[in-house]
Write a structure and sequence with these properties.
There is one protein chain. This protein is an alpha+beta fold. Helices cover 27% and strands 20% of the residues. The chain has nine helices and 15 strands. It has helices spanning 14-19, 61-77, 90-104, 108-112, 164-189, 196-200, 272-277, 332-342, 348-352; strands at 42-44, 51-53, 80-84, 123-125, 140-147, 207-215, 227-230, 236-240, 248-252, 255-258, 266-270, 287-289, 297-305, 311-312, 330-331.
């Protein structure tokens, strides 16, 4: 990432703006009319994304087949689902979320000690992309590496709250284990060997990152977004949402569905790399985040990614004369430069990489 320069402008913390009690948001956060929450597409309030009981993967043959079928349908037709009974400790999930909330409540000078740069994005941040004058999202975040071990640096993780590092270590181990089980299910449903996708990601040598999103109260939530529409550039995302405040919206045909989180569920979504590997059978889907005038919101997005220097391309078993390879090979390092340079741009990146016909 050495070609990425520093931030083009001084960084303003959205939480600091919110805490001043301002009645109108700065112009930098006002989206064009076509991109505002109420524009273009309707908000669908009477639907939710599928909820799948993952414990069925360990049941009898009939229950396992039913669970695999539900996962397959969700990956092909939704790109999103909620997983319950996934094996990650509910108490650990609650503790991880609360500790990160406490981090964002710390004095600004403490948080500023972890300020990030676009060279790696590790640390405390408030923007994606380095376009000068870009319209920004109403959110702050903290980004860190969990795997591979040579990128994991506890010194770049917050020292306070005192139990955060130990808790996130254990949390990441349990979520990685769940991610590995999910990869088996995705592979089986594609008609591949159960270890196919894991091997394509680098076997045990995967990349795993955590992005903790903090969405402060916003006096004009109808003019901005906490996170602009995008599909995730990585492999698969396992999101621990705020249990009390909804905000994530998923694109569904001509509308947006507001996700209603189930208790201690992970919101799982397919990323661009698995869309590529599946040769467009599985879909990464646009999503966005709304903000709230009365309540702040926090979420933990765990990215289960390929090893950064491996070539990612459609599985040869899924390429036929009738369904030729939809994408040319590219490493994840090359791919994620797009979002790190330009920020969130819907599905523009993955769509632009389709092989010409």
């Amino acid at each position: 990432m050495s070609c990425v320069r520093d931030w083009p402008e001084p960084i303003v913390r959205v939480q600091s703006l919110s805490e001043t009690g301002l009645s109108a948001i700065p112009e930098r956060y006002i989206k064009p009319i076509s991109d505002r929450p109420s524009s273009n597409f309707s908000v669908i309030t009477d639907q939710n994304i599928p909820i799948i009981d993952f414990s069925g993967m360990y049941g009898d043959e009939t229950l396992r087949a039913k669970t695999l079928s539900e996962i397959s349908d969700a990956c092909r037709n939704w790109g999103f689902f909620q997983a319950v009974n996934h094996g990650v400790s509910p108490e650990l999930m609650d503790r991880a979320r609360q500790l990160w909330r406490e981090f964002f409540y710390q004095p600004m000078e403490v948080k500023q000690g972890y300020a990030n740069s676009p060279k790696t994005y590790e640390g405390y941040g408030s923007r994606l992309g380095i376009e000068k004058g870009a319209i920004l999202d109403w959110s702050d975040y903290y980004f860190l590496h969990c795997l591979p071990c040579n990128l994991k640096d506890h010194n770049k993780w917050p020292a306070q709250p005192s139990s955060l590092r130990e808790t996130i270590d254990e949390y990441s181990k349990q979520v990685v284990k769940f991610g590995g089980e999910m990869m088996k299910a995705l592979s089986i449903n594609l008609g591949l060997s159960e270890d196919y996708l894991q091997k394509a990601f680098g076997s045990e040598d995967i990349g795993a990152c955590l992005r903790v999103n903090f969405y402060p109260k916003c006096p004009q939530p109808d003019l901005t977004l906490g996170l602009s529409p995008h599909s995730d550039p990585g492999g698969m995302t396992l999101l621990l949402p705020d249990q009390n405040v909804a905000g994530l919206q998923v694109r569904r045909n001509d509308g947006w569905i507001t996700v209603k989180p189930a208790a201690h569920a992970f919101i799982v979504n397919i990323g661009d790399q698995i869309q590529v590997l599946s040769n467009d059978i599985y879909k990464s889907v646009e999503h966005r985040v709304m903000v709230n005038s009365n309540k702040e919101r926090i979420s933990l997005a765990f990215f289960y990614n390929p090893k950064s220097d491996l070539l990612i391309e459609p599985a040869k078993e899924l390429v036929t004369p009738q369904r030729p390879a939809m994408y040319s090979p590219m490493t994840f390092d090359e791919y994620r430069l797009f979002i790190r340079l330009r920020g969130t741009k819907g599905k523009a990146q993955v769509d632009s990489l389709k092989s010409p016909r």
